[in-house]
Design brief:
Blueprint lengths: L10 H4 L6 H21 L4 H19 L11 H22 L20 H23 L2 H12 L4 H8 L3 H24 L1
Helix pairs in contact: 2-3, 2-5, 3-4, 5-8, 6-7, 6-8, 7-8
Length: about 190
């Protein structure tokens, strides 16, 4: 597997520069699906969830230049969750004020954001980190290395079976799996540190 081209500085520091397209692309890849998924789980249609996601990302972009990391004040993820939850509440409150004229779902049935929704947010964040890290690691490694990892770690095939499928030794399968797992952990730890 190839090493990353650069040592990644803190993503939160990098997004302070609105011209850093790479940082913003990475930020959007990680957080947009998280925000969109959270909105969908709270009853928004896909288009409304996309609008909410864009609104939250605009809010973050507007505040990015002033972001100062202070662990004593809480985590970035917590701050982002507060923005998402408040925007979702505002959206749902606005929808409740208007009557649906086209026979859509009664507004009284729309779920309100849960007060203790942070557990759901945290779980989805962890899943999103893994998906993002897996995509990054997959780009770095040879297809055979990724396939050996996937067969053994995800599809739960034995090393012997994976070796047979791939036409390589069992030792090569286990080495590939270990390398991919190591890189996955590095990516996730890097993001969690931010």
């Amino acid at each position: 597997m190839a090493e990353s081209a650069i040592t990644r500085p803190s993503l939160l520091l990098r997004i302070r520069d609105t011209q850093d397209r790479r940082a913003w692309t990475e930020f959007v890849e990680i957080y947009a699906p998280l925000i969109h998924g959270y909105a969908r789980k709270h009853g928004l249609q896909s288009a409304d969830a996309a609008d909410l996601t864009q609104e939250v990302l605009r809010c973050v972009a507007g505040a990015a230049g002033r972001l100062e990391y202070d662990p004593g004040r809480g985590s970035f993820r917590g701050w982002l969750f507060t923005i998402v939850r408040n925007r979702l509440r505002n959206f749902l409150a606005g929808q409740r004020r208007h009557r649906l004229e086209d026979g859509g779902r009664p507004l009284e049935e729309w779920p309100a954001p849960e007060e203790d929704a942070s557990a759901l947010w945290d779980r989805e964040y962890e899943q999103r980190l893994f998906v993002w890290a897996a995509a990054e690691v997959r780009r770095e490694c040879q297809p055979e290395t990724w396939r050996a990892f996937w067969l053994t770690a995800v599809e739960a095939k034995s090393g012997k079976e994976a070796a047979r499928i791939l036409g390589i030794s069992q030792a090569a399968v286990y080495l590939a799996k270990r390398r991919v797992l190591t890189r996955l952990k590095e990516y996730v730890q890097q993001l969690q540190a931010e």
